[in-house]
Design goal:
The chain is mainly beta. 6% of the residues lie in helices and 46% in strands.
Length: 169
């Protein structure tokens, strides 16, 4: 999977092997943090490897994120999901792994986030015909949803979404 590097370690019956996946977190306090998520080779909710979206939508509370510190040393920090406005996944095409991706309704949108950031891109709506409106996308039970652009994929926390507008070409 693109953007993942295997973490080397001694085998243990209690250890779950994880891979690192590059990302940048954008936080409610206006700062950002570049580093790595830890993802498993298997996901509990679907076939295939765990995705960053799975980690973020796993439930409330904290998740581990590895950042590069001063002098090149790495440090694992626990971040609270509620304070993540959005995550940038440069060069990572996670959305294409979703079942139905090729047939999902696509909408060009602009998003205004609580941080004041405005993102433009495409969202995929996985709903039956008639229930594939932008409002259906916004009411998803998952708090983190994909927004795709030419250069990056974003996981946007809909709890920090102030305005969602369809852009008509």
């Amino acid at each position: 999977m693109s953007g993942h590097r295997l973490i080397e370690s001694q085998p243990s019956e209690f250890r779950v092997e994880k891979a690192r996946s590059d990302a940048t977190l954008f936080l409610t306090n206006g700062t950002s943090s570049r580093g790595n998520f830890f993802v498993s080779g298997g996901a509990p909710s679907h076939a295939g490897p765990e995705r960053i979206k799975d980690v973020l939508n796993a439930g409330p509370g904290f998740f581990p994120f590895e950042v590069l510190g001063a002098g090149g040393a790495t440090q694992t920090i626990l971040y609270n999901r509620e304070h993540i406005v959005f995550v940038e996944l440069a060069g990572n095409h996670e959305p294409a792994l979703d079942p139905g991706y090729d047939v999902a309704m696509r909408r060009d949108v602009a998003m205004l986030l609580s941080s004041g950031t405005r993102l433009h891109g495409v969202v995929s709506i996985y709903r039956p015909h008639g229930c594939d409106r932008l409002s259906d996308f916004a009411r998803s039970p998952e708090p983190f949803l994909y927004l795709e652009t030419r250069n990056a994929t974003y996981l946007v926390n809909v709890n920090h979404l102030i305005e969602l507008v369809e852009e008509i070409s």
